[in-house]
Amino acid sequence: MTCPECGQDIYGKGSHYSCESCGSKWKVTFTCEVCKNLPSVAASCGAVSFFCETCNTLKSRESMDKEFVKEN
Length: 72
Ligand SMILES: [Zn+2]
Ligand SMILES: [Zn+2]
What we know:
mainly beta; 7 strands; binds zinc ion; single chain; 0% helix; Rubredoxin-like; three-stranded antiparallel β-sheet; four-stranded antiparallel β-sheet
């Protein structure tokens, strides 16, 4: 996943990500790229996974549609 401002990789988990390159912080909303529903989020052992109950599929962050909102 890349920073909308500088194009470098951003890191984080769940819906919060930050860019080490330009210092921006992002809240990311994921929607299923197939059905456009919000996937449910399951957090376990520090890992966060997304599951679309409509498609009955485990989603990857890379494939889903993303909406970036900048945080300060
Ligand atoms: Zn950046
Ligand atoms: Zn879906």
